[in-house]
Amino acid sequence: MGFQAACCFVLLLCTGGSLSKPTLRKERVVHPDPPLSDQLHEDNQSFQYDHEAFLGKEEAKTFDQLTPEESKEKLGKIVDRIDNNKDGYVTTEELKNWIKRVQKRYIYENVAKVWRDYDVNKDNKISWEEYKQATYGYYLENPEEFQDVTDQHSFKKMLPRDERRFKTADLDGDSTATREEFTAFLHPEEFEHMKDIVVLETLEDIDKNEDGFVDQDEYIADMFSHEEGGPEPDWVITEREQFSDFRDINKDGKLDKEEIRHWILPQDYDHAQAEARHLVYESDVDKDQKLTKEEILENWNMFVGSQATNYGEDLTKNHDEL
User: Fold this and answer.
1) How do 290-292 and 254-255 pair as beta strands?
2) What is the Cα–Cα distance from 300 to 311, expressed in whole angstroms?
3) Ramachandran region of residue 10, left (φ > 0), alpha (ψ -120 to 50) or beta?
4) Model-level pTM?
5) Cα(189)–Cα(194) distance, integer angstroms
6) In terms of C-beta density within 10 A (0-12 exposed, 13-18 middle, 19 or more buried), how is residue 202 classed?
7) Sequence-ordered strand ranges (E) for 94-253
8) Measuring CA to CA, which residue among 106, 105, 131 is closest to residue 116?
9) Lowest-confidence range among 58-72, 85-99, 247-261?
10) Which of 14 and 203 is assigned the larger pLDDT?
11) pLDDT in tens, 145-154
12) What is d(CA 55, CA 40) in angstroms, rounded to the nearest whole number?
């Protein structure tokens, strides 16, 4: 079970559910940011891609409830928030950071939903003891109720693993997690200092013979439960070829940690950076490589469209996490 399944695992255990070996393909590759619109990025035809990048997909859908005047008014308030250093300009870097934060809002909303369940003493921090008791307390106090060997093994495996991940997320080492540290704990794929944990947990999940590497059979077994005597689907054959041709970079027949990192944490094109550059280029009237509020409002339909969103509601909320 990898980092992506850890929270699901906890929920299953708490609700009496069970985990079963997958029979279909499992996706290991991490895509930290939710995908933007499937629409082609056609500058002169549709701004849907730009709207979703700038506002988020759900917010962009509801912007058609506002008049152009309301839309521009709310866009002006957004611009004030994007301008972090309050110098009156929005740079490409500020715009990129805003787009990334909008894309990751769902992560912070997820953390907000579970925060109060773990912050038992309401000190606005979550200690390792609070998390351990909330997640594993029942098992630790009633081990006799967990007779199933698989469940016992899962608990014994996940408890120290969660503690190791918690300590990695706990940057100041005080055994308590701030909201940002707890976000890193629950969503390690989103944080650079947690990437080694993501790789290590993936290796531990797939490396059944515990030799510190992932061979081709282990790689396939993680995706596909093969029935005795049954033929492998075409996609499995393709994955074997992918393993040999692309995953196994040094061609030694197995994946080490660095090759696993290349596989599950690909260094793809930075969509937020490209979109920020595009928005600046299209709106920068005086070509000084940065935008004034006036330049953005002049080209407002590229940012928020001629229809607008419940983003107005979003502006009234406290979004410290963004």
Assistant:
1) unpaired
2) 15
3) alpha
4) 0.62
5) 7
6) buried
7) 126-127, 176-177, 214-215
8) 131
9) 58-72
10) 203
11) 777 767 766 8
12) 18
